[in-house]
Design a protein that fits this description.
The protein is an alpha/beta fold and 350 residues long. It is built from eleven helices and twelve strands.
Length: 350
Amino acid sequence: MSSTIRVVHYLNQFFAQIGGEDKGDVGPDLIEGPIGPGRALQQALGDAGEVVATIYCGDNFFAEHQEEVIEQLIGRIAGFKADLLIAGPAFESGRYGVACAAIARAAQQRLGIAAVAGMDEDNVAVSLYRKEIYIVDCGAHIARMVPAIRRMCALGIKLARREAIGTPADEGYLRRGIKRNVFAAKPPAERAIDMLLAKLRGEPFRSEIAPPKFAGGKPAAPLADLKSAVIALVTDGGLVVEGNPDKIEPGRPTRFTTIPIRNVNSLDADKFDAVHSGYDTACANQDPNRLVPLDAIRELEREGVIGKVHEFIRSTGGAHAAVENATQIGRQIADQLKAAGVTGVILTST
């Protein structure tokens, strides 16, 4: 690497000054030098680096053609002999955040260069990518653009120079789940007592073990009319077709299976199994309707209590599920159900 760090900046169509939502389908392209927030990035770099190019893509286009876009943009980054990729900041924008994180990971893995993405801690991309890349907490609002760019730049320079990286609190990036041993001035017992006394006195203190932060979910509104409702059956109890052809994991799930039930009125024990490491599946294997009550809901359908039963069951195993994987599985199932016109879900668990 030369003494001057060569930086490529990734932006979406809005911050690249192409347009708003109406330009979300714009494909990947490149502008030499900085543009938009890139000017603040160049100012933050000072003599340490130069924004040699800005790459951009519409949020919608990236979401629909992710691998194709990454392939094109990685080639552009390599062509400029970049030392560092700065992506964003995306603040709370989910699609933009995913694009920033995905291109940063690709630059880091495929080109071996330093990469930093920026976004709000609650951005959906954080749970998907935080263990693989450095993500600087930029807050939710564009008003924090300049300080966010400065923090991203400072961390990026250290990464590009292969300097030692401090803690998330010191450097401003989000926790990555990586623990390192460090020497402390006091032993653990003394530090714990100091924290307790500070808390009792109402004084500020910082825990050494940050509790996990989970995103809240907004409960759906009740169904207004059951007689016209389309009801889907979903379970995290590990229901699978006999033989488990989709290889659903009994624990630590990474996927779900889709089971067709058109013209099926009951789940027969010789056609379905339960695979799950968190409970005794004997009762479910004797009668799978105990796990997913297809027989009961078909009866309600025949009686006209509900409008229709959706033609597929979605199933996964919930034992020891990582929050990131469970969130992704849930989102994928929900997207499919919404696209199919489902209005209500019965989710069975164990």
